[in-house]
Amino acid sequence: MIDKSPLLLATMIGLALTASVLGGVVATRRHLMVIDVLGDSMAPSLVHGDRLLIRRTHRLRVGNIVIAHHQEGGRRTAADGSLASTWLVKRLAALPGDAVPESVAPAVGGHSRQVPAGMAVLLGEHPASVDSRLWGFVPLDDIEGVVVRRLRPSTVDPRR
What we know:
The strands form two sheets. A seven-stranded antiparallel sheet has the order 1-2-9-3-6-7-8. Strands 4-5 form a two-stranded antiparallel ribbon. A hairpin with a 2-residue loop joins strand 4 (about 70) and strand 5. The protein is α+β, with helices and mostly antiparallel strands. It contains two helices and nine strands; from the N terminus they run αβββββββαββ.
């Protein structure tokens, strides 16, 4: 008769390790994500093709590069059927209570001097960026996270 207890013990340890690894992957995906930059709205800081590590958080500071859902008039829009990505990559320019940047004043009617509660101002770095200068305020709930670092620089030839 063969003693099966070492085999059973090894199987149980293997299952426990597998469950632990899978649990760690799920937990990590809740807090981190990876996206690729599409377009040049954040050039020169970020360019088309850069891969970014994002920390999902609502702890935001002015100056952070953030990702947010696409906007139209301060409302989230779906990118269904669009060649655009699901995410916008922009710099956080103002939070609730901060002064509205002059470049954004026309988009918010010029009457708001401060960013209202629950809203933010997002700006791209490229002069032709589509951002709060066009949409106005962006709901804080539409900001998904903060760029932690660039994982891979673009492999796209900028001369093309």
